[in-house]
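Hello, quick one for you while I still have it in my head. A protein chain has come my way and I'm curious about its shape. Can you walk me through what the tokens say about the fold? No rush at all, and the record is pasted right below.
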Amino acid sequence: EIVVKGQKFVGSMPSWKEKLSDEEVAAVGTYIRASWGNSASHIEPDHVKKVRARLSSRTTPWAGEAELNQEKWE
């Protein structure tokens, strides 16, 4: 489960590892970061590529908000 702005969401997100390119993941992330009142900067495909390489050995889903917040996404 994850809590976003006080609302709890429960479930697993499907893996996009083999389905979306770095460019597509960057585009989705950029859209989210610029929508619904957000105003964060865009995401470069090279950044997605680096994060994917660093996390390539991961085989299990994230265990929730606490684990996601511990990860360095930069």
In short: The chain has a mean pLDDT of 87. The radius of gyration is 13 Å. The beta strands are 2-4, 7-9.
